[in-house]
């Protein structure tokens, strides 16, 4: 029902929201790129994660632009409290996903932003300033990498697990808050050609087809917000496999996404509880 409601939004409005999201990503680059050269201030949050003055500056700029362009829309961001939580339209912001990478000079960090309507994603952007890579999408508009259309080719049914390029969250993601380390062990056994990429880059390599699928476990809504529309508009599949309250009242989400044939195999492993054999994971 919610997806049907989103489908009734005029395409011209989706195009306008998509253009706004891309412009916000441009604004983020204007803040982030000079900071890479000149440096920035780093603090430690109560949960021991890192935050910089650039995280704050980017999110403040996003909120300023959203307030100017779409004053009735809500905002959910990593660094500041939500606004207009009653609105059907919610912008979801992660100004720097992978702040640890940003602080230590690893270029895989990125800006993630999305607009959801009644929980259904309309537009999404992941931008990597240090890599000069941007993926962006809108419902009915397609998915693009630096302006070039992305159309994923599904994996053949005959591909063996050893040939699947699977991206996983770090094992810590599987065990924090809720211990599902057995799933990490099952996935790494079933798919030995797995790799672990941190931060937004993990999503980007799946969106672009450089990897076949990802299992992203126990993350906040802003860590996943743009990826469903990016994947689905590229002809991939996206499925939420976990959704439960976090320790501070927020939601913790887990998702499997990528090429449909591989996502189907991964979902079968989840249904089995991670106890099946390698052959059953196929």
Task: Summarize the topology.
Elements lengths: L1 H6 L3 H28 L3 E3 L5 E3 H17 L4 E4 L11 E9 L1 H5 L6 E8 L2 E9 L4 E6 L3 E4 L2 E3 L15 E3 L2 H5 L5 H10 L4 E2 L3 H8 L5 E7 L1 H4 L2 H7 L3 E9 L5 E8 L1 H12 L6 H4 L1
Parallel strand pairs: 3-4, 10-11, 10-12
Antiparallel strand pairs: 1-2, 4-5, 5-6, 6-7, 7-8, 8-9, 12-14, 13-14
Description:
38% of the residues lie in helices and 28% in strands. With 282 residues, the protein is α+β, with helices and mostly antiparallel strands. It has two domains: 2-150, Fructose-1,6-Bisphosphatase, subunit A, domain 1 (Fructose-1,6-Bisphosphatase, Chain A, domain 1); 161-281, D-Maltodextrin-Binding Protein, domain 2 (3-Layer(aba) Sandwich), CATH 3.40.190.80. The protein has a seven-stranded mixed β-sheet, sandwiched between helices. The chain has a five-stranded mixed β-sheet with strand order 11-10-12-14-13. A two-stranded antiparallel sheet has the order 1-2. A hairpin with a 4-residue loop joins strand 6 (120-128) and strand 7. Helix 2 runs antiparallel to helix 3. Mean pLDDT is 93; it is low at 277-282.
């Amino acid at each position: 029902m919610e997806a049907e409601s989103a489908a009734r939004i005029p395409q011209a409005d989706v195009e306008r929201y998509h253009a706004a999201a891309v412009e916000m990503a441009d604004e983020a680059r204007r803040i982030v790129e000079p900071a890479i050269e000149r440096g920035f201030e780093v603090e430690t949050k109560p949960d021991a994660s890192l935050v910089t003055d650039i995280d704050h500056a980017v999110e403040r700029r996003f909120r300023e632009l959203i307030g100017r362009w779409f004053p009735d829309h809500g905002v959910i961001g990593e660094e500041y409290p939500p606004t207009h939580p009653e609105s059907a339209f919610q912008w979801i912001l992660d100004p720097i996903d992978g702040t640890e990478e940003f602080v230590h000079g690893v270029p895989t960090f990125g800006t993630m932003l999305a607009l959801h309507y009644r929980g259904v994603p309309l537009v999404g952007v992941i931008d990597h300033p240090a890599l000069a890579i941007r993926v962006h999408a809108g419902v009915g508009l397609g998915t693009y990498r630096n302006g070039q259309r992305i159309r994923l080719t599904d994996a053949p049914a005959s591909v063996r697990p050893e040939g699947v390029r699977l991206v996983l969250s770090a094992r810590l993601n599987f065990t924090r808050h809720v211990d599902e380390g057995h799933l990490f062990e099952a996935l790494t056994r079933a798919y030995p050609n797995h790799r672990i990429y941190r931060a937004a880059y993990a999503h980007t390599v799946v969106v672009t087809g450089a990897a076949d699928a990802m299992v992203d476990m126990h993350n906040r809504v802003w860590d996943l917000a743009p990826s469903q529309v990016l994947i689905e508009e590229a002809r991939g599949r996206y499925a939420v496999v976990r959704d439960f309250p976090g320790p501070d009242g927020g939601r913790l989400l887990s998702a499997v996404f990528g090429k449909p044939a591989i996502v189907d195999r991964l979902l079968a492993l989840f249904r089995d509880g991670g106890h099946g054999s390698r052959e059953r994971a196929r």
